[in-house]
């Protein structure tokens, strides 16, 4: 059974009587032990997808308007807020880009971590909880973990706060882990350590991982499959091998051209995709990538492409001009 099934997810920002589409028709599935990379530039809707799955959309201003979300076969959209909260932190967890989002600034980190266990594993003794906490912090590269447990979040550096949050998300070995750019603020050694930990968790206990990043290079090492998102839609989804070996969508090709390669000289200028991700309020017909696409045709400017054989582009499938 899939750990996560998302079908036709749509999310709108609602302002009075006006609704602005932020996500449109997002379909994703994740199996146990699988890592799915969700890639795309800032503003493409990756974080919003993660928040919608977790039930953490900033309602009522931003709300799910369509679609289904299933976690281990159970509909998330029909669960009570309390039942959904119960799932967060135990069966599903999210590591945020900004650690202060997840940490309570007026509570020592040790007691925040211990609370998780007290709520979700009430049978564990306090000494076992303490041992698990110390081990969990050591696993994410926190030195002197016993001393750090008594710190408040503001007493820690940004990198340490990030590792505390990662330790918190991994503590109860969730079935689904959503990582939103989790290692951006960390130095490369700790980054490698954290990625290794996520990989181990996924392999050994079958955690399904949705890894959100703008860095396709990280996904080459970590992901089994990659979904590329643009302007609130999935535009390509392939195995990690196929994404790197034969990307179909012009946007994916552009993202890959912008990654530095070891066989390039230091003087080589990286290719960039011209222009920017359109604002959700920008009226654009057809394929929303067309103003930036060097292969756009007249069809692209007025008809939205459907996902066929892993790519939503008029250059593929039956939808040629
Ligand atoms: Fe480019 Fe057209 Fe494909 Fe969109 S549908 S990516 S504009 S070729």
Model description:
This protein is an alpha/beta fold and 321 residues long. Helices cover 32% and strands 22% of the residues. A six-stranded mixed beta sheet has the order 6-7-8-3-9-10, sandwiched between helices. The protein has a four-stranded antiparallel beta sheet with strand order 2-1-4-5, with helices on one face. It starts with a strand and ends in a 19-residue tail after the last helix. 38% of the residues are buried. It binds iron/sulfur cluster. Residues 249-250, 287, 289-290, 293, 295-296, 300, 305, 313-315 line the site of iron/sulfur cluster.
In short:
This protein has about 325 residues and is an alpha/beta fold.
N-to-C order of helices and strands: EEEHEEHEHHHHEHEHEEHHH
Q: How many separate structural domains?
A: 2
CATH class of the largest domain: Alpha Beta
**Total strands:** 10
Cα-based radius of gyration, to the nearest Å: 21 Å
Summarize the SSE layout with pairings:
Layout: E1 4-15, E2 18-30, E3 35-39, H1 46-54, E4 62-71, E5 74-75, H2 81-87, E6 92-95, H3 109-120, H4 126-139, H5 145-148, H6 158-170, E7 176-180, H7 188-205, E8 208-213, H8 216-222, E9 225-230, E10 233-239, H9 240-245, H10 250-257, H11 298-302
Parallel strand pairs: 3-8, 3-9, 6-7, 7-8
Antiparallel strand pairs: 1-2, 1-4, 4-5, 9-10
The structure holds iron/sulfur cluster (SF4).
Iron/sulfur cluster binds at residues 249-250, 287, 289-290, 293, 295-296, 300, 305, 313-315.
């Amino acid at each position: 059974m899939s750990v996560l099934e998302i079908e036709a997810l749509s999310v709108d920002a609602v302002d009075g009587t006006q609704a602005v589409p932020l996500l449109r028709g997002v379909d994703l599935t994740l199996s146990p032990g699988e890592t799915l990379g969700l890639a795309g530039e800032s503003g493409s809707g990756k974080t919003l997808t993660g928040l919608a799955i977790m039930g953490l959309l900033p309602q009522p201003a931003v709300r799910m308007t369509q679609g289904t979300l299933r976690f281990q076969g159970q509909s998330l959209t029909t669960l009570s807020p309390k039942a959904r909260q119960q799932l967060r932190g135990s069966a599903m967890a999210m590591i945020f880009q900004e650690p202060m989002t997840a940490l309570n600034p007026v509570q020592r980190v040790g007691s925040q971590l211990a609370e998780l266990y007290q709520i979700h594993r009430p049978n564990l003794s306090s000494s076992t909880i303490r041992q698990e906490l110390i081990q969990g912090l050591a696993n994410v590269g926190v030195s002197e973990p016993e001393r750090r447990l008594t710190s408040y979040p503001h007493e820690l550096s940004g990198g340490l706060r990030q590792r505390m949050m990662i330790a918190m998300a991994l503590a109860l070995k969730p079935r689904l882990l959503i990582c939103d750019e989790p290692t951006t603020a960390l130095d490369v050694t700790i980054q490698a350590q954290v990625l290794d930990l996520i990989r181990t968790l996924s392999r050994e206990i079958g955690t399904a991982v949705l890894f959100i990043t703008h860095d396709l290079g990280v996904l080459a090492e970590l992901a089994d499959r990659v979904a590329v998102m643009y302007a609130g839609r999935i535009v390509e989804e392939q195995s990690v091998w196929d994404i790197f070996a034969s990307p179909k969508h012009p946007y994916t090709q552009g993202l890959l051209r912008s990654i530095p390669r070891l066989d390039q000289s230091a003087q080589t200028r990286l290719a960039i995709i011209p222009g920017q991700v359109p604002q959700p309020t920008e009226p654009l017909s057809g394929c929303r990538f067309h103003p930036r696409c060097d292969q756009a045709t007249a069809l692209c400017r007025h008809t939205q492409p459907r996902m066929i054989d892993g790519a939503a582009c008029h250059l593929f499938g039956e939808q040629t001009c």
